[in-house]
Amino acid sequence: MATLFIGGTWRTGSSSEQREVVNPFDQSVVAKVDEATVEDVAAAVGAARAAFDAGEWSGTPAAERGALLRRVADLLVRDREDIARLETLDTGKTVRESRQDVDDVASVFRYYADLADEDPGRLVDAGRPDVVSRVVYEPVGVCALITPWNYPLLQVSWKVAPALAAGTTIVVKPSEVTPLTTVRLTELLEEAGVPAGVVNLVLGGGEVGAAMVEHPDVDMVSFTGGLGTGRSVLRAAAETVKKVTVELGGKNPNIVFADVDLETAVDNALTAVFLHSGQVCSAGTRLIVQDEIHDEFVAAVAGRAERIRLGNGFDPAAESGPLVSEQHRARVEEYVATGVREGARLVTGGRRPGEPELAGGFFYLPTVFADCRRDMRIVQEESFGPVLTVERFTTEEEAIALGNDTHYGLAGAVWTADTPRAERVARALRHGTVWINDFGPYLPQAEWGGYGRSGNGRELGPSGLAEYREAKHIWHNTAPAPARWFTG
Ligand code: NDP
Asked: Whole-structure pTM over 0.90, yes or no?
């Protein structure tokens, strides 16, 4: 079956080239998908432009757009098992986690379905009885949505649902490594009745994404990915002064005070960093522990890290899967080598697992570095793998200073039994999300995004919808009369 969706039709790429999609557990080829060319991107943008300019979708009552999103949520629930299976084949993550992703994504579609017809604008007091002044929200236009490989379905849904609720038309590009659930979501959007040209899908690598960002008929880019690519996107978008939101990486502090329940904090520190083998933008990769419990905490985390069961995402006994690709594992290995060179103490991991049954996959052992210092590269740069760095602190001020000592600012957590202190630290941390005595949950209703180099703009929540809207002021003079500024 053809896997590019342009102007309401499934097609192959104009070059007829295909790309193999590989299961990171055993490197088997699970699918072949069509590769888009720059010409296909132009066709997709053209279709989205024509659909937007025709005004059918933006003119559809917002409640009807919401109803369509609700149908998509129902279809996701209907096909939950199949979609979760595809996500696990594509990413290697456990199918348990993939199922959770599908459930989360269905609630994101429901949330924006409800929000679509709320808040159409507001009246403004012009101070004159003959003037009606109002602000209305309009869809921003044609949007290019570009997503990474770690949470393919989730990331694309965080963009597609608000973009469609707002009435924009879209061209979507998932990561070349993990396109399958985005193809599936596009099928569901078609089944739900999205008009031709409103949703378009192109597949391929960075050059396809770059062509989308450069295209003059694209009004807005919403990008999630790495910092380096984010910079390129911002630079390229500047040429045509597009609206851009970027969700980039994170180097997320997990701060633990000595008054915590140790077992709970250790257990959560483990999930924070090793879930999905650390391939999570908000992973708690930077553990910051108070002196009194430091040694005991590190020993407990390392001991439990050694017992994490790696395996095939479809094996119910597996607690974590492989890394997404050979190339990515090489990047993690280089990062660990840097840590060793910098003098951090390797407590556990730091290599591939030895079990023969894991040899065919891109596995890497959960790794813990202690005695880390804030000036080390491994403390400042993302590994995007199962690697934890541990630093220590004495006072609350030190904990806050360490937690904010990053160019990123995506997420962080503070663990303490002292409620006023928890609130103080949460307020002081310069991150887009802060968890108190928890790590990882998000809600469709609550904004997600970064301070600093973690990005611009927000996804989820009302702000996630506002990104896809323009605010227009309409001044209506109901009793026009000569202004008589010029008297001649
Ligand atoms: P990349 O930045 O490499 O890629 C992201 C997307 O951009 C992919 O679809 C990629 O295509 C595409 N792309 C590559 N080059 C360009 C270009 N010049 N112009 C436009 N698009 C381009 O990120 P990864 O896929 O490697 O994902 C990992 C990164 O994503 C991590 O750094 C992580 O922190 C970040 N991330 C951030 C999140 C957040 O919410 N802040 C959430 C999840 C991940 P292709 O891959 O096909 O080459």
From this structure: yes
